[in-house]
Write a structure and sequence with these properties.
The chain is an alpha/beta fold and about 750 residues long. The chain contains 18 helices and 30 strands. The chain binds alpha-D-glucopyranose.
């Protein structure tokens, strides 16, 4: 007679070992893979496995569910995307209620705030929404490196720099998890572009892997203990990351002490036995293919029970913390109004003012704008793909300007509305799920029109917009570069308005770096709004009006040309003849491919700011750059000691010397002595954002530096090494605007094991 539930071990009442011991092989396999994904066109073998129990219907639109084992008290938990907010279906069959979520600003904007407290507050709001909609784990943050502007998912990632990436990701994770739901720090590692992502082999030298591509994950994992880590689709140095014991057992668990569970990206990897053996605990979303292979492997002994039990234990330890296991009674009614206000505030804090000639901005609220650019009327709130959010509304720039008290030319507005309506009728609508819209062409005007508009308005505002999304990398033409139409519009609007001594402001509604050198001198001000979420228009108007003083700084270099990026030389990689047809990805038909990261550690400012590059014109706007409506001075740089022993406290005072309140981001760069290893001229090692400083108000910020902040990775020794000698401490308003400098000496060489 089968044991009744009250005789069977129960999760939470009995030990995990006892619960696992009661699981059948079938239950173990079903638990180690998800309960499947309903995605149009999936090949049969990738269809959902037949499992006992799940709550797939609990949160429609969620990315995946684990398998329940009710007889052992194991519930099914829910995992939903993504980095800009919770992505679930906004409508459900036979339900009158809606399930909209807040579209927060994209990750790149949040990183551009350089404000870990702000990012944590956004994380808290996302965590509440996830919890109140019945989600247990939010599949965020994503922190792959902005290696090249053409990376399709850069919008979902933070920076070219691993320290900014790691610190911001840790803040986001801590914020989300403070609400009792989990996260998934992703995609470990080197998913830096989308081309052939399911199969591409990324060849990275060990020093670059450690210092650039893993460092952000190391910081985030050590400083926020994410419930889960998601591996990436690609291979690194010949092995799928989801199948790499070196990555998942040695580095992640033994070296970094990670204690949560590891989940694959959806349908990632090839060999489920290898994935489980490597330490990839959960295979999402789960497929018939995996179920069959794993059952056979368990029965044949190819997959050892101890491996299964280890992976199951890792997952159960997290389920024990989950709202579902704890019986949280979620409301399905998060406070979206409060979250909208958080999204609006966060958006304005991450916008970056690149140019402001003769204090064009802020604009007095009595001004009448001539609003140009289709994206002014069709704001791009975020990227597409799994990082999208089903939001209730989008505030366009027009709405934002009017709500802020500005007037806008109705003639221009109606011209654009009619133009956009006509273009949409002609546009080939994207039918594939998750794919970005086709960009609308720009509306053209005669010189006479523009001259009349200039006479009728006070200032021109033009938005340049860019879609970006998962699955596709960005185009060069019309992606990084402006289109001929956009260039023409900027030139002619500027000419018309400047002839009447009126100014022109460009707003960049973008998900990543665009070319600016060829047109920036034609306009008076440039504000990067990024993709600022559902409150876009309000947030942009808050900055343009001066209600919010812009305080964002670039977390990624804006170079003059694509060819200035060392990574461009062999982007996106080469296709290889697959070893056998089977090797072709059963998901997307991606072919075997390979790319070598020949630029090694020379990514972003590490390359652009090198003394050898000085004087060349490759930088338009450097890493860490951003203007304000006020000015700040830096003073009283102090070190707790001029001789480094084990740590150092560094303080600096920031004073607002302008006429309006503002926030400043102080950046700490360290130049280290070289021995065997070539090193960047200086590397960011800490940053701090002041509170809102009133005119003449000061704040002293404090940085604590330990020896790990001084090290470089020596691949020969496989250790982190800090050389003896003279170190320079540089406090900058950007990586090239160093305001104060001092130094300290380190007498002995330090080698830190892994
Ligand atoms: C996607 C993404 C990942 C996302 C997952 C679930 O393909 O790469 O970021 O969390 O699948 O939607």
């Amino acid at each position: 007679m089968s044991a009744t539930n009250d005789q069977l071990p129960q999760l939470g009442a009995n030990t995990i070992t006892e619960v696992i011991a009661a699981m059948t092989p079938e239950e173990k396999v079903n638990f180690l893979i998800g309960t499947g994904m309903d995605f149009p066109g999936l090949p049969p073998k990738l269809q959902a496995p037949v499992v006992g129990s799940t709550n797939k219907g609990k949160v429609p639109g969620a990315a995946g569910n684990t398998c329940a084992i009710p007889r052992l008290g194991i519930p099914s938990i829910v995992m939903a995307d993504g980095p800009a907010g919770v992505r679930i279906n906004s409508h459900r069959e036979n339900e009158a209620q809606t399930f909209f979520c807040t579209a927060f600003p994209i990750a790149t904007l949040l990183a551009s705030s350089w404000d870990v407290d702000l990012v944590e507050s956004v994380g808290k709001a996302m965590g509440v929404e996830a919890k109140e909609y019945g989600v247990d784990i939010l599949l965020a943050p994503a922190l792959n490196i902005h290696r090249i502007p053409l990376g399709g998912r850069n919008f979902e990632y933070y920076s070219e720099d691993p320290w900014v990436s790691g610190k911001i990701a840790a803040a986001m994770t801590n914020g989300i998890q403070s609400q009792g739901v989990g996260t998934s720090v992703k995609h470990l590692v080197a998913n830096n572009h989308e081309w052939n992502r399911n199969v591409i082999n990324v060849k990275i030298d060990q020093r670059a892997l450690r210092e650039i591509y893993l460092k952000g994950f190391e910081i985030a994992i050590k400083e926020s203990c994410p419930w889960t880590v998601m591996t990436s689709y690609n291979k690194v140095n010949g092995t799928y990351t989801s199948e790499s014991a070196e990555l998942l057992s040695t580095i992640l668990r033994e070296e970094w002490g990670y204690e949560g569970f590891v989940v694959t990206d959806w349908l990632a990897g090839r060999d489920p036995v290898a994935q489980l053996n490597a330490g990839n605990d959960l295979l999402m979303p789960g497929s018939i293919y995996q179920q069959e292979i794993l059952l056979a492997a368990i029965r044949s002994g190819e997959l050892e029970a101890s491996i299964c039990d280890r992976n199951i234990e890792n997952i159960l330890n997290i389920i024990l913390q989950s709202p579902t296991f704890l019986g949280y009674q979620y409301s399905n009614a998060p406070d979206l109004k409060t979250d909208a206000a958080i999204a609006r505030s966060a958006a304005s804090q991450g916008m970056v003012l690149l140019r402001n000639q003769l204090e064009t901005l802020p604009v007095s609220e009595k001004a009448c704008f001539g609003v140009f650019g289709v994206t002014s009327y069709e704001m791009i709130t975020g990227g597409t793909g799994s990082g999208n959010v089903n939001r209730a509304y989008t505030i366009s720039l027009l709405e934002g300007l009017k709500s802020a008290g500005f007037s806008c030319s109705e003639t221009i507005e109606s011209r654009y509305n009619n133009f956009i309506d006509a273009q949409k009728l002609k546009r080939v609508e994207v039918t594939e799920a998750f794919m970005p819209h086709q960009a609308l062409p720009e509306c053209q005007f005669s010189d006479e029109d523009l001259s009349n508009f200039a006479a009728q308005t006070d200032i021109a505002l033009m938005t340049i917009g860019r879609h970006s999304g998962e699955f596709v990398d960005r185009e060069e033409e019309g992606g990084f570069f402006l289109t001929a139409e956009e260039e023409d519009l900027i030139a002619r609007v500027s000419s018309a308005y400047h002839k009447q001594s009126k100014k022109v402001v460009v707003v960049l509604n973008i998900g990543g770096v665009v070319e600016t050198a060829s047109w920036r001198d034609q306009v008076d001000a440039i504000l990067i709004a990024w993709q600022p979420g559902q409150e876009s228009g309000h947030a942009i108007a808050d900055v343009l009006s001066g209600r919010v003083n812009p305080s964002g700084k670039l977390a990624t270099t804006f170079a003059r040309r694509l060819t200035d990026y060392p990574s461009y030389e062999n982007f996106p990689g080469i296709t290889l003849i697959p070893a056998d047809e089977e090797e072709k990805s059963p998901i997307s038909g991606d072919k075997e491919a390979e790319i070598s990261y020949n630029d090694s550690i020379w990514v972003g400012y590490r390359s652009f700011n090198a003394p050898s590059h000085r004087g060349n014109d490759s930088i338009c706007y450097p890493f860490g750059f951003g203007l304000s409506y006020t000015d700040f001075t830096y003073s009283n740089l102090t070190l707790s000691d001029k001789q480094f022993d084990s740590k150092l406290e560094i303080t600096v005072t920031i004073t607002n010397t302008g006429d309006v309140a503002g926030k400043e981001v102080a950046q700490l760069y360290i130049s280290a002595p070289c021995a065997d290893l070539a090193k960047p001229e200086a590397e960011l090692r800490a940053f701090a954002k002041t509170q809102l400083l009133a005119p003449q108000q000061s704040e002293t910020v404090c940085f604590n530096i330990d020896v790990a902040n001084l090290t470089s990775f020596d691949p020969e020794l496989s250790k982190w090494v800090a050389e003896p000698g003279s170190y320079r401490v540089k406090i900058g308003a950007s990586s090239l605007d160093i305001r104060l400098e001092t130094g300290f000496n380190k007498s002995a060489r330090t080698e830190l094991g892994l």
